[in-house]
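for the writeup, i need someone to sanity check this before i put it in the appendix. the sequnce is what the collaborator sent (i think, or maybe the updated version? ugh). structure was predicted straight from it, no edits. if anything looks off just tell me and ill rerun, i have time this weekend
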Amino acid sequence: TDHHGTIARVRAGLQAASQALSVRIPEGYPDYVLHTMVRVMRGGEEVKISKRAGSYVTLRDLIEWTSRDAVRFFLLSRKPDTDYVFDVDLAIQKNNDNPVYYVQYAHARIGSVLRQAGHEVTSANAALASADLSALDTPAAQSLMLELAKFPDMLEAAARDFAPHDVAFYLRGLAAAYHSYYDAERILVDNAAIQSARLALVAATAQVL
């Protein structure tokens, strides 16, 4: 975040090159995202990082201490201009306090339900495409459907605004909506039409997750 001056120099240099080489480079190019430094906590203590002393934490260190999924999700889950603490201990917990586990657990729950019904997660949407969704008229089902409906607009806005953290926020909200739905309604029921509708809903949720 202390490199705003670099952006101005890069842009000025590109405009000079643009004129000298007769190449059209738009003014204001390139777009940029400035990030705050990331602090790392491990074992309840901050890992000391000093550029002068040559002590630092690499991305490989974080992956080895946690997982690739955790590193991806944690680093994308905050706005780049806000202070961020990467909590290694939280990233390896297997409970709902860990947002990565919370989202992955929602997907795993859906996979288990689909397999019990004789479907694979990767092919369930095609198999359930003809399900009659009119049975999804309960508050729990409609709440989950409304959350799913936000996905296209959210994704478009995240791409337009250089805001991948919006995707992480959305996934946490969708996982919460699914867990609530799972607790509110049985999915595998005797009524074939209702079961197909509910399976189609959770398969769609798995696809988005």
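The first helix runs from residue 4 to 21. The longest strand covers residues 38-42.
thx in advance!!
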